[in-house]
Design brief:
- The chain is mostly beta strands.
- A three-stranded antiparallel sheet has the order 1-2-3, with no helix packed on it.
- A hairpin with a 7-residue loop joins strand 1 and strand 2.
- The mean pLDDT is 89.
- Bound molecules: zinc ion.
- The site of zinc ion has 8 residues, from loops.
Length: 85
């Protein structure tokens, strides 16, 4: 099991493999965990989570996202058309 070392930024988002990630927060006790967020798909994870949540190769395939598909996702709930008054 290989988790990112403290201070070592993970290379890509586990869900969409985008490299546009940022550090959201660090543990109150230094070096315990780092929380990251993906700027592309908004996935967020903590470095101390299981590899299926932090490692792109072990993230469940059914939940993976391709960044190019994001604009095609349906808006839920659907926005109704404006009423004519
Ligand atoms: Zn992502």
């Amino acid at each position: 099991m290989s988790q990112p070392q403290e201070g070592q930024h993970p290379l890509v988002c586990p869900r969409c493999r985008s490299a546009a990630i940022e550090v959201l927060s660090n543990s109150p006790i230094a070096g315990v965990w780092t929380m990251y967020s993906c700027k592309t798909c908004l996935y967020a994870w903590r470095s101390s989570e299981a590899e299926e949540n932090t490692n792109p190769d072990k993230y469940p395939e059914a939940f993976r996202i391709k960044p190019e598909d994001i604009p095609k996702f349906p808006k839920v709930p659907a926005i109704p058309t404006l009423r004519k008054s």
